[in-house]
């Protein structure tokens, strides 16, 4: 089963439209001119417009000092008109990511990247995994999960969640021997290497939730290679394509968190 992320996202947006829209602005911070970051922010702005949520982009040149950037993010966090803050990652390399992120007001951190925000909202990739599992009518009870990639944005929050839930899982990374993933029922991947995982690596009935995003031969692709869908997909119970899989769901979950923080 190919998972239509846009359908899941539309269900989330329909639920939000039935609620009282927060009388607040969504603020996004972009440092530099990363084209991929700009593309992601355009998707978020478009969804904000569809919900009638005011969206404001604070763009800074990558010559801004880290101290000044932190002050600017703190200033945005103190603005009563701002109900949620996104700091678009990755930051240019000369900034300390954790120091910059720690400047976000936890009560307005809709990405749930600061420790203090966890009491208000859940990390986005965790909610996306829950959304996809609900969509296919499965849960993790008795399942073995492979998490491929242990990065800050995807792998780490999912690992923390699985640990808290007591789910049996194993962590793999970009240099791992992936021959062992054939022993797992669900593969959650976020390495960002197009075609890193092939259907024939998996046992029959495996589900794949792919957060990977990469450009290969001029095309957008995920970690999971779905190009042989007709010949090899008998191994796969379901998978999220790239684009059109986890991406739209993740953006919709941003606004779900925005509504939660301002309810």
Structural notes for this entry:
The protein has 263 residues and is of the alpha/beta class. The chain has 2 domains: 19-111, Rossmann fold, CATH 3.40.50.10860; 124-247, NAD(P)-binding Rossmann-like Domain (Rossmann fold, 3-Layer(aba) Sandwich). The protein contains 8 helices and 10 strands. It has helices at 5-17, 35-51, 66-78, 97-101, 124-136, 155-165, 229-232, 246-261; strands at 25-31, 55-60, 82-87, 144-148, 168-172, 186-189, 206-210, 214-216, 219-221, 236-239. The strands form 3 sheets. The chain has a 5-stranded parallel sheet with strand order 5-4-6-7-10, with helices on one face. Helix 6 links the parallel strand 4 (144-148) and strand 5. Helix 1 packs parallel to helix 8, helix 2 (35-51) packs across helix 8 and helix 5 crosses helix 8. The longest helix has 17 residues, at 35-51. The protein is globular and about 50 Å long. The two termini are 36 Å apart. The model has no long low-confidence stretch (mean pLDDT 94).
């Amino acid at each position: 089963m190919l998972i239509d992320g846009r359908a899941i996202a539309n269900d989330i947006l329909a639920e939000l439209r039935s609620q009282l829209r927060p009388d607040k602005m969504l603020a996004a911070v972009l440092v530099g001119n990363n084209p991929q970051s700009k593309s992601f922010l355009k998707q978020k702005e478009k969804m904000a417009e569809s919900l009638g949520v005011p969206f404001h982009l604070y763009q800074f040149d990558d010559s801004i000092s880290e101290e000044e950037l932190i002050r600017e993010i703190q200033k945005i966090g103190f603005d009563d008109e701002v109900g949620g803050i996104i700091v678009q990652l990755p930051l240019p390399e000369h900034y300390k990511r954790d120091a910059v992120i720690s400047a976000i007001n936890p009560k307005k951190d809709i990405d749930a990247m600061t420790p203090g925000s966890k009491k208000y909202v859940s990390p986005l990739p965790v909610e996306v995994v829950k959304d996809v599992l609900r969509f296919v009518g499965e849960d993790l009870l008795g399942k073995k999960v492979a998490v491929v990639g242990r990065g800050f944005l995807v792998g780490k929050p999912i690992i923390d969640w699985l640990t808290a839930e007591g789910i049996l899982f194993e962590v793999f990374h970009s240099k791992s021997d992936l021959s062992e993933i054939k022993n797992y029922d669900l593969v959650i991947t976020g390495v960002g290497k197009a075609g890193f995982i092939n259907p024939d690596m998996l046992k029959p009935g495996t589900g794949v939730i792919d957060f990977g995003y990469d450009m290969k031969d001029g095309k957008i692709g995920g970690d999971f290679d779905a190009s042989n869908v007709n010949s090899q997909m008998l191994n796969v119970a379901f998978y999220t394509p790239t684009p059109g899989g986890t991406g739209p769901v993740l953006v919709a979950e941003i606004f779900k968190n925005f509504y939660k923080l301002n309810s």
